[in-house]
Amino acid sequence: MRIGVVTFPGSLDDKDAQRAVSIVGAEPVALWHADHDLKGVDAIILPGGFSYGDYLRAGAIAAISPIMREVIEAANAGMPVLGICNGFQVLVESHLLPGGLIRNDCQQFVRRDQRIRVENNTTAWTSDFAAGQEITIPLKNADGGYIANAETLKRLEGEGLVAFRYLDVNPNGSLNDIAGITNERGNVVGLMPHPEHAVELGFGPQGAERMRSGLDGLPFFTSVVSQFVNA
Predict the structure, then answer these.
(1) What's the mean pLDDT in 203-220?
(2) Domain that holds residue 146
């Protein structure tokens, strides 16, 4: 399986995402923001960072970059697409996911080991989780507050489109403690925490009793590979 990772000017976590893809046995494929070629990939990751310096709004310029025409078309045709942090911002700015992401309510850049609950394990990127599973993965953002109007929130909650929810603390003021969402088809998922930083033994969030395994992010990537193998 070939998984493309898009690099925008200002992307910081593209190499981490590529490594996560390699760890699960898939082939990472570097995609450049200015191209119109998806290089025959089977899935796409929009990584974290500060694309185009977060000018205008976080993710706003990246959403209209050349490669996003192909990404939007592929997503609408059913290709799995994962947006992590800045990638989530790009997905909402591209209207592949509803709502928006604004400055953290604390007006600070937040970085922490964040507990979240898997609310929907039927997507292309969450099928290897158990429903309701609680995981801990790193979070780091300044514009992570998820917002949506009342009608959109009602639809997200009513149709099971909230993919992840913050536990213990809401780090950025997201409505309904939403940490990530999915589209109706389940092929497009966006979240603010960083699963690609928790895919290797000895690396990852600190636990109260010991260094965590750092593997809580791995099922994101094994899920999409399983979807492809079993298709």
Answers:
(1) 72
(2) 2-229
